[in-house]
């Protein structure tokens, strides 16, 4: 039994595609779909109902809190969690997850594949013990064992990386995190405001979990480096805009023969 949980906030278009994908390609592979929604103001609720998903609102959102709510609401012993802007691709996505859990009673979670880092660590056999960041869970395409969660819930007081923190903790308590070759796609375009929000959380999360400190020297070095890089990119883009412009001028005056 698999419960699919989707975390969502104002992602109606992406949510609709994910739900269409799930219900048309994988309907026999799971028992339920739950949308954990952070007070969306678009038509996310209507879309969820249209596809038969259970819609659950969360007001005081935190990454760990929303993951805990997902586990609480799920009826299945295996919880597969997505963000609204991600979706499964491989035809055996859920079948492989089910087989992995059936074959290992000590399994706390599975990380699916969506990026170069995932695939490289999977092929190289780099375990979550060695690299909990790139081989531990990522809560936009991962599965976890609800029975393990009942013993070790997600933390509400971490700014982000609640998935990696949980991965480290359950491994320290004798459980296992593995890769599974279930492929999904992750697609999102963030606004500058959203990128800044994520940046702030990542700074806190990197300090809490990976002990990456921040110093004044690093801050000023980063400012100088990012400013130089931004100016360089603007100059390069301007140069190629001009190259394209002059090429088109020449093309207009010297068009090749049509076939």
Brief descriptors of the model:
259 residues; alpha/beta; globular
Report how far the terminal alpha carbons are from each other. Answer: 59 Å
**Average pLDDT score:** 94
Structural shape = globular
* CA-based gyration radius: 22 Å
Q: Report the order of strands and helices.
A: EHEHEHEEHEHHEHHEHH
Q: Tell me how many strands there are.
A: 8
Output the strand order for the largest sheet.
Answer: 3-2-1-4-7-6-8-5
- Show unreliable segments: none
Helix content: 40-55%
How would you classify the helix and strand content by structural class?
A: alpha/beta
Number of helices: 10
Beta content: 15-25%
- How is the biggest beta sheet arranged? 8 strands, mixed
What does this structure look like?
The mean pLDDT is 94. The protein has helices spanning 12-25, 44-50, 63-73, 93-103, 116-124, 132-135, 146-151, 162-172, 192-210, 216-253, and strands spanning 2-8, 32-37, 54-57, 78-83, 86-88, 107-113, 142-145, 176-186. It is globular and about 70 Å long. It has 10 helices and 8 strands. Helix 1 (12-25) runs parallel beside helix 2. An 8-stranded mixed beta sheet has the order 3-2-1-4-7-6-8-5, with helices on both faces. The relative contact order is 0.12. Helices cover 50% and strands 19% of the residues. With 259 residues, the chain is α/β, with parallel strands linked by helices. The longest helix has 38 residues, at 216-253.
